[in-house]
Structure formats: C-alpha cells, structure tokens
C-alpha cells in the first residue's frame, strides 16, 4: 500500500516542523560537501545555524540550471562516487546537459513518490501500465517504471512511437493506464481514429498520466474524449528526480506537491520576491530528502500558482495549478510578451481545430501560426475555411494583443516528435 496516509494528511504545523528539520539537515550537508554552496554561503556570510525557521529559506542562495551546467559533470555531488547508483540527464536542447545523480536512497525514494502518486489516482496492482515515454537518460520513463512496479502493476516498457505496436500491446495485454506526453497522446488518438478503433469499446484504458510538457485544460479534454479515459496531470523535472513531484488526485483540481520532500516557493521571476498564494509566478523548489545531489532553491522556470484551500481528498500537501509555461519560453513579438500556452488555449477551444499546431516567427517580427484542421473541420466549402481562419486570427488578437497570420493545414500534416513537442520555430532575422 503506497497511500502514505500519515505523511500525506499531516497537519500543516507537523508538516512544517518536518520540513524545517529536513531543510536544516540539507543545509548542513551542502555546507560540508558542495563547493558551490560553500562559496555562496561564504559570500553571503551565511552559516547553517542561521536557518531557524522555514521563512529563513529566503536567506539561502538560488540555484539556476546554469549552475548545474557549470558544475558538470559531478561538481554538485554531496556523496562520494561509490555511493552513486544511477545517472540521468536533463532533456535540455542547448549546451551541455545537466547531470543528475541518484544514490540508492534517492532511487528508492523517487520510486516511492511515484507510487504515492499512482495510488492517489486509484491505481492498484491489478493495473497494466503502458509507459509511452522515452527510455534512456531522460528520467520520465525509468522513474515512472520503478514507481509503478512498486505498486505492483504490470509495466509495459513500450517507449514512444510505433503506434501499431502500441495498439497491439494495448489489445493483447489489456492496458489500463498510459504514461504519455500530451503531444503523443493526441497523435495516438488520431492513429486510433484512422484505424477505426473505438477505445471505449475495443480497449481497456481507464487513465492516462500526462506530463513532461505544458498543455492546457482544453488539450486535456481532447485527450480524454478521444481516448475515452481520465487524464491526470503529472509534473516533474529531472533536477527533482523526474516524475512524482506533483500529481493530481482523484478530484483533479490541481496537483498535490509532495511537501515532505520538496520545499515550495512561488516567486516573481524578475525580482526573486515571494508571491502570495493564488498569484502566478516561478516555482522554486528545495530538495528536503535528496542524498546525492541536494539542490537549494532551484529555479524551475515553470510558471504556476498555489491553489488556496484544502483539497476534499484530505491530503494537506498544497496543490499547484496547471503549469502555464516557462518563464524562459516567453516570446516577445513586437514588444508584447506571449506564452505559447495562450495560443494553445485559444486553438484547442475550437472544435474545428485538430490536434497539432506550430508557431513560426519569421522575418522582422512576424508570427505565423499553422493550425491543423480537425478531421471534421472542413466541409469542402472554402468560405467556411476563410471564416474559420479569420475567427482564429480575431480570437488570438484578443488574447495576445498581436494579430498573427493563421494558416490552416489538413489534419496530420504538421511534424510530430516522439519526445517533447517542438511548438515554436524562431527564424526571425531581427
Ligand atoms: P525534464 O527535466 O526533461 O524532465 O523536463 C522538465 C520540464 O518539463 C519541467 O521543468 C516543465 O517545464 C516540463 N513539464 C513536466 N511536466 C509538466 C506538466 N505536467 N505540465 C507542464 N510542464 C511540464
Ligand atoms: Zn486531493
């Protein structure tokens, strides 16, 4: 049983006392072992004994992803090399990767947190979980794999792509749960439709854990309708051991972040100052239980907010709203700040729009949005297309304050990636 009822429903005062104890231990540990933190503490005149309350976390230095790259490969380690069990790297596309090390305790703990997430949504040992994430250096697949095994599920390490084989596995082994990116889930939904498979009748799917990239509520609904299952939002990042950081419970109203393992702050990304509950800002996380590579105040760059109030499920760990984008994904087009998620929200709310889109920035500062039509989105009447095109353009202008050019393309014609979706191509000659 991986409902850790005692930890998950701890009263806030007890939870905060536990966090403080673990924070103090983490700070003592990095002050002894990690040169980067030793230097930063010295520069700020900070000693571990200065951390007396949880609010004192603000006296600690931030850690940025650039710090991990600068200390590549093993400058951030707090244990000796022989205590390491596993290496993962981040899926970043620029520069050196970030190396993330796990000790035995870290490996077990990461699986345990995923197991807690799965049990929270009602998964049991009777479930068959088809893991459609990329196996390899990326944490997404392996950490979920071991978590699901802890629950006792039958785990199918399918990896992404090869939709024929995915379907065969689902049919033959009666898969009940998927772990998948939103972009592949949509692609796979199209594949089923094309092959005349009705998932409600022909398959045993019940749930999908969808994450690894941002997606909107509208996309979530599309996946649920097309695959005939319940989608649960799953949030994690390699720097925090991958999946299992925050997950939706059966109420599907925000993702509980496991606060016994992570200390949570939401800050203004420009000033670094804390923001009150409910206000969107950048998520900053401090690891409380990590052995091999503890991180203080890690700037995730992910934009979200805390949902105020208690969840009816009884868990006391606070909930995060859907991630609306990354502070570094923001596009500036003609001086206006735009997040790709705003565009997705508009597109996915229109039934005539299909499941894929691409934002192309071109020339001096032009934005072109290529939008796939839904299978039923075109009745052969050109004037309807023209109308839809201008309707999308108008809605986007209202949302973004900039009017992009919109191009409608037939279903299935935009490129799909097996890993994380690439939604923006910036070819500007500015
Ligand atoms: P990686 O470290 O390669 O696993 O990538 C982690 C990043 O993926 C996070 O920092 C987020 O930007 C993104 N991500 C992961 N899960 C979600 C989710 N459920 N919703 C939105 N973005 C996500
Ligand atoms: Zn809940």
Describe the structure.
Helix content is 32%, strand content 24%. With 430 residues, the chain is α/β, with parallel strands linked by helices. It has two domains: 1-328, 3-Layer(aba) Sandwich (Rossmann fold); 331-426, GMP Synthetase, Chain A, domain 3 (2-Layer Sandwich), CATH 3.30.300. The longest helix is centred in the N-terminal third of the chain and has 22 residues, at 12-33. Bound molecules: adenosine monophosphate and zinc ion. Zinc ion (ZN) is lined by residues 249, 251, 256, 311, 313, 315.
List strands and helices in order, with pairings.
Layout: H1 5-8, H2 12-33, H3 35-44, H4 65-70, E1 84-89, E2 99-103, H5 104-120, E3 128-131, H6 139-151, E4 154-156, H7 163-173, E5 177-180, H8 182-194, H9 199-202, E6 207-211, H10 217-227, E7 230-237, E8 242-248, E9 255-257, E10 262-267, E11 281-287, E12 298-304, E13 306-307, E14 319-320, E15 325-326, E16 331-333, E17 336-338, H11 340-348, E18 353-362, E19 366-373, H12 382-400, E20 405-409, E21 424-426
Parallel strand pairs: 3-4, 3-5, 5-6, 6-7, 18-21, 19-20
Antiparallel strand pairs: 1-2, 7-8, 8-9, 9-14, 10-11, 11-12, 12-15, 13-14, 16-17, 18-19
Helix pairs in contact: 2-3, 5-6, 8-10, 11-12
Our count of helices gives: 12
Q: What is the name of the CATH topology of the largest domain?
A: Rossmann fold
Order of strands side by side in the largest beta sheet? 4-3-5-6-7-8-9-14-13
Radius of gyration: 22 Å
* Percent helix: 25-40%
- The level 1 CATH classification of the largest domain is Alpha Beta
């Amino acid at each position: 049983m991986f409902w850790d009822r005692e930890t998950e429903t701890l009263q806030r005062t007890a939870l905060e006392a536990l966090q403080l104890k673990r924070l103090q231990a983490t700070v003592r540990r990095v002050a002894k072992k990690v040169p980067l933190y030793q230097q930063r503490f010295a520069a700020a005149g900070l000693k571990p004994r200065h951390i007396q309350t949880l609010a004192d976390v603000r006296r600690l230095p931030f850690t940025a992803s650039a710090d991990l790259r600068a200390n590549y490969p093993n400058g951030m380690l707090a244990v000796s090399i022989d205590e390491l069990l596993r290496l993962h790297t981040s899926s970043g596309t620029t520069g050196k990767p970030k190396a993330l090390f796990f000790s035995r305790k870290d490996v077990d703990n990461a699986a345990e947190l995923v197991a807690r997430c799965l049990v929270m949504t009602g998964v049991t040992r009777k479930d068959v979980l088809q893991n459609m994430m990329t196996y390899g250096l990326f944490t997404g697949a392996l950490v979920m794999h071991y978590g699901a095994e802890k629950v006792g599920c039958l785990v199918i390490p399918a990896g992404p792509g090869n939709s024929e084989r995915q379907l065969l596995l689902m049919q033959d082994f009666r898969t009940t749960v998927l772990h998948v990116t939103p972009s592949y889930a949509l692609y796979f939904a199209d594949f089923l439709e094309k092959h005349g498979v009705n998932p409600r009748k022909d398959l045993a799917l019940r749930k999908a854990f969808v994450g690894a990239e941002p997606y909107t509520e509208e996309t979530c609904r599309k996946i649920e309708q097309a695959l005939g299952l319940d989608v649960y939002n799953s949030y994690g990042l390699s720097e925090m051991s991958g999946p299992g950081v925050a997950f939706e419970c059966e109420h599907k109203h925000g993702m509980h972040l496991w606060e016994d393992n992570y200390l949570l702050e939401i800050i203004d990304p420009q000033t670094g100052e804390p923001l009150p509950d409910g206000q969107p800002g950048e998520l900053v996380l401090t690891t409380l239980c990590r052995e091999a590579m503890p991180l203080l105040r890690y700037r995730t760059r992910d934009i979200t907010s805390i949902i105020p109030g208690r969840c009816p499920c009884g868990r006391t760990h606070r909930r995060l709203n859907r991630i609306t984008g990354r502070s570094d994904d923001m596009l500036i087009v003609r001086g206006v700040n735009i997040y790709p998620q705003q565009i997705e929200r508009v597109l996915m709310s229109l039934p005539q729009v299909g499941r894929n889109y691409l934002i192309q920035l071109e020339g001096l500062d032009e934005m072109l949005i290529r939008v796939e039509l839904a299978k039923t989105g075109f009745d052969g009447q050109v004037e309807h297309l023209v109308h839809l095109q201008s309707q999308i353009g108008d809605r986007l202008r209202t949302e973004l304050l900039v009017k992009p050019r919109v191009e409608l393309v037939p279903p299935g014609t935009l490129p799909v990636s097996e890993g994380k979706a690439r939604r923006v191509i910036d070819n500007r000659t500015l």
